[in-house]
């Protein structure tokens, strides 16, 4: 074979060898992995209760039970982990990490299954899933105003367990009750209390984690660098978080909320949305006042065309008598009256904004099953706005909602300011603080029947809206929110060889200058880049060994492939 011929064939040859290598070794690794687990878990009788392989009758139900984004449960994404582990204690997690690392298997850690890109249960290389469903206790200390929350708990379970102990304590975290705290807290955590108390990650006091060496660590033993990194930097890059200690925050016995709907085809409503940009981040810290824009069915007789509506929604940590003057002074054209408002408890507000009718009993938050009871898919993207956007630009953006005919598309405008913006951007990895007026959440959801053409249409729609907004949002970098993970920003190489420069393309969008410190922490605590995924923090290349030679990316599990390639090259050249 001529050099030029081999050179042209070489990339395809490498890909083929790599695929064959993975396929051939996967079965052996699977068997060795299980044997390793049995060696490291002292109570061998418990192993059968935590391990699910493809031949287990419960494998499929366990795998699919918390895939909350249904598009990733069907081809071409269909997840096929070699093993699913559902641990009950830290030692079983430690064993999983040790054995996965020993036999070259990746770990995907799943808490609630809401990962926007499916990275908590998908992998392009042989992998196991650590499903934390059995680690979900919530221990509330009312006197100390703290709680220890295991990473497999959902937000609904956290809120309800706090409510059981106190009606005047809460926690600043997200809206939706089936979201798992393991990923949500580690990515930031927006919620109705963020202008008063900051993000969920701003209120983490301690954590338990299993690191890349299989060690159980708390805040003291992990050190402040790692503790900093896992609060907003995505804990999956650094280890497996088992539990969080959270700071509970005071909430009033009654708060006030309203949701006022206006027709966006009316000029006065368009002006209201535009004016909202100038006031929402300046309100008192007790006020969260956001806007949701989406299409709805027309109520006009004979009109089948959907109409655009703007929902002006607020949660105020106080009585209606104090809320009304604030709105009437700063946003009078909304025309808010007392009858638009309702006074409810904090837990009732959580139930309401999670999607249930007013008056639904709070124990509904304990339901961990999939909402709606049918396959549902979603795509989400994010932006941060630093200057008010012109009215005509906003109008062109929301009119694109008409293009999304089958799914339910929406734009959510979420105000910043107050406590969220007072915290320095380097305090935790989440950097989007002072200087941002509000965040935009672009989202489309649809009933998924596996139609690839329809799925592509939904993706094309959200990408087009996001692209249109480019000139009007944050720049250099264009910011993004980690919990709305966006693989369009860039991704790591599947074999773990991603460079710092490559990862910076998406890393700075999420973390700005905090990305550099995250890389430093990652290199220190996981130098071989064991905990990795399509957007994990990369480790810097290993340095020269003292005895000469180098640690390099050839020492990854693909060593066998490269040994074959080296032999072939030496034979030809």
From TrEMBL:
Annotated GO MF terms: FAD binding; oxidoreductase activity
Domain FAD-binding PCMH-type: 77-251
Family matches, as SUPFAM superfamilies: FAD-binding/transporter-associated domain-like
This protein's record includes keyword Glycoprotein: yes
Keyword terms: FAD, Flavoprotein, Glycoprotein, Oxidoreductase, Signal
Cofactors required: FAD
Leader sequence residues: 1-26
Family statement: Belongs to the oxygen-dependent FAD-linked oxidoreductase family.
Listed name of the protein: FAD-binding PCMH-type domain-containing protein
Organism in which the protein naturally occurs: Ficus carica (Common fig)
């Amino acid at each position: 074979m001529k050099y030029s011929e081999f050179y042209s064939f070489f990339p395809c040859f490498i890909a083929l060898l790599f695929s064959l290598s993975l396929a051939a070794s996967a079965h052996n690794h699977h068997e060795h992995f299980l044997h390793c687990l049995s060696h490291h878990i002292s109570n061998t009788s418990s192993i059968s209760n935590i391990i699910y392989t493809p031949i287990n009758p419960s494998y499929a139900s366990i795998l699919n039970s918390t895939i909350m984004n249904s598009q990733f449960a069907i081809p071409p994404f269909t997840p096929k982990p070699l093993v699913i582990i559902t641990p009950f204690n830290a030692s079983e997690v430690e064993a999983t990490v040790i054995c996965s690392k020993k036999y070259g298997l990746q770990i995907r850690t799943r808490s609630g299954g809401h990962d926007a890109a499916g990275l908590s249960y998908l992998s392009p290389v042989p992998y196991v899933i650590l499903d934390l469903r059995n680690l979900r206790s919530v221990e509330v200390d009312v006197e100390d105003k703290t709680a220890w929350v295991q990473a497999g708990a959902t937000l609904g379970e956290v809120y309800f367990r706090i409510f059981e102990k106190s009606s005047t304590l809460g926690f600043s975290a997200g809206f939706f009750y089936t979201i798992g705290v393991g990923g949500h807290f580690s990515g930031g955590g927006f919620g109705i209390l963020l202008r008063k108390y900051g993000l969920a990650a701003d209120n983490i006091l301690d954590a338990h984690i299993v690191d890349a060496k299989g060690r159980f660590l708390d805040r003291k033993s992990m050190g402040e660098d790692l503790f900093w990194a896992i609060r907003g930097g995505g804990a999956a890059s650094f280890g497996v978080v088992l539990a969080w200690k959270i700071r509970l925050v005071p909430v009033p016995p009654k708060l006030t909320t309203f949701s006022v709907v206006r027709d966006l085809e009316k000029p006065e409503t368009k002006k209201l949305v535009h004016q909202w940009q100038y006031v929402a981040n300046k309100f008192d810290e007790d006020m969260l006042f956001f806007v949701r824009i989406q299409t709805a069915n027309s109520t006009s007789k004979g009109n089948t065309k959907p109409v655009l509506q703007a929902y002006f929604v607020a949660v105020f940590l106080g009585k209606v008598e104090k809320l009304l003057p604030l709105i009437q002074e700063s946003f009078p054209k909304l025309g808010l009256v007392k009858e638009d408002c309702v006074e409810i408890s904090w837990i009732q507000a959580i139930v309401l904004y999670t999607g249930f009718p007013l008056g639904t009993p709070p124990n509904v938050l304990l339901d961990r099953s999939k909402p709606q009871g049918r396959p549902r898919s979603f795509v989400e993207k994010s932006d941060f706005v630093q200057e008010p956007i012109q009215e005509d630009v906003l109008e062109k953006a929301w009119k694109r909602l008409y293009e999304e005919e089958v799914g339910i598309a929406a734009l959510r405008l979420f105000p910043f300011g107050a406590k969220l913006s007072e915290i320095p951007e380097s305090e935790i990895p989440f950097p989007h603080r002072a200087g941002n007026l509000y965040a935009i959440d672009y989202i489309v959801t649809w009933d998924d029947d596996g139609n690839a053409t329809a799925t592509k249409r939904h993706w094309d729609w959200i990408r087009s809206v996001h692209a249109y907004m480019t000139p009007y949002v944050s720049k250099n970098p264009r910011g993004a929110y980690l919990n709305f993970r966006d693989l369009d920003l860039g991704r790591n190489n599947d074999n773990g060889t991603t460079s710092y420069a490559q990862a910076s393309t998406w890393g700075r969008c999420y973390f700005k200058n905090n990305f550099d410190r995250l890389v430093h922490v990652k290199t220190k605590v996981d130098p071989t880049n064991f905990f990795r995924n399509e957007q994990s923090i990369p480790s810097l290349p290993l340095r020269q060994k003292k005895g000469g030679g180098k640690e390099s990316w050839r020492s990854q599990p693909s060593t066998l492939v490269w040994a074959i390639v080296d032999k072939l090259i030496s034979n030809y050249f």
